[in-house]
Prior knowledge:
Elements: E1 3-7, E2 10-13, E3 18-25, E4 33-39, E5 46-52, E6 57-59, E7 67-72, E8 77-82, E9 91-99, E10 104-107, E11 111-116
Parallel strand pairs: 2-11
Antiparallel strand pairs: 1-3, 3-8, 4-5, 4-9, 5-6, 7-8, 9-10, 9-11
Amino acid sequence: QVQLVESGGGLVQAGGSLNLSCAVLGNILNIDIMGWYRQAPGKQRELVASVTRSGTITYRDSAKGRFTISRDNAKNSMLLQMNSLQPDDTAVYYCQGTIVRTLRDYWGQGTQVTVSS
């Protein structure tokens, strides 16, 4: 019933830009924390950035200065603006939401981002 759907992935050359969007579908009350994770083949899934409903933002070090995360609380949607992309950014990017009250996480199916050198 509750789904997170990513869009915007694709192929881009190093130094280019790409925007990822996440839409939340279904009957849910609140999503307290939304974030973007990524996972490359053979690598551990890692947090890219997160944002709370109040606007508190966290970035992993490699994303600082290049990526910008934002959310629309009314729509429960989220955007990741990625600039100066590098081959190391190549991964499947996942939208994630956390509802603290129910101690539950929701995950999208992922969207592929490929950065060529």
